[in-house]
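Memo to structure team: turn this sequence into structure tokens by end of day. - J.P.
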Amino acid sequence: MKATTLLLSAGSGLLVCALLAVSCGKAGQAPAAGSTPAFLDVVTSAKPAASEATLARGRELFAYNCAHCHGERGEGDGYGAPFLVPQPRNFVTAKYKFRTTASGELPTDEDLFRTISRGATGTGMPPWQYLLNDADRWALVDYVKTFSPSFAEARERKPMKVAPPPEDRRDVDNGREVYAKLQCAKCHGTDGRGVGPSASSLLDADGRYINTRDFTVAASYRTGFNEREITRTMETGMNGTPMPSYTGIVSAKDEYDMVAYLMSLAGRGSNQHRQAAKSMEGVGAPARVIQVREHAWKYEPSEIHVKAGEVVKIEFSTTDNGLGAGHGFAIDGVDQDVFMNGAMVGAPLSTTFRIDTPGRYTFYCATQCSTTDLHPHMHGTLVVD
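Reply from structure team:
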């Protein structure tokens, strides 16, 4: 059977982006939430040659955009890291999950570019393709590689070959049997919800607890939900995690049948829509629109001045996806009537309000996943004059 490389043509239907000026360069206008292309569908432009200039640019971009999660030294220990599940990637250990290379190998430069470009669904890693242009994302690839000597020492990194499906038909019943035979239920559970008997004891390479994929929720697939992506993950495995590679262990037919079975489970679990926004009722059209942005888990601007009785609209955008739950905005004292929850990169939200009583009000991130603040650094001051 002839094999094909994982670096197939992205095909049609890819995003066409208009230019948008941002603080770190130009990037494409983001599409509607949820339409981020899958890992292998990310368009990879020609990589510029690495140079002192690209490394300097990558260092600058990393410090401004990435260090608050990944840490200044790339060790995954930024001040936002304790609030993130899964933890940010440790670039020093260089154990990368998302690759086209074989198990245990480093990713290609194109793999790093894809991950930076599209982010990781359901995590705090945002799709930088909507915030940074191609040259800046390639500069980040060059700089991220400097955290580990492994890249300089490694032999040529090539995408592995994956057998194409042997036939058009997929046998879901056979896929269910393959799932049982490979003992996937030990981790993922007999129902695929990620709560198998071993799930609570699974650790990553750094000894930290790692979540098990819930196959019943399509949005839980980090790199996209389609046959090609899931097959790629089965072939490459996920370095630094208990997820192995199944290359050479199952036939192409069994592998594609099992992928079909896994995809058939999606939709049986909860897939709650987290985005929400509420404005004050009856205040009319806004007299002023104020742009507020989240960056590095802080508000920009952190202090907003409005007039008493003025109808104001806040348009809120983000530069990361904070735990995969997005970021929010609410005003203390009127937070039952004015709030936004779950704003994501490429999916901004807005709220309109009027406050008649002068004073100083705190605005804060309304996104929570427990009884405590999920993003405690995110707060600012609204001054009503």
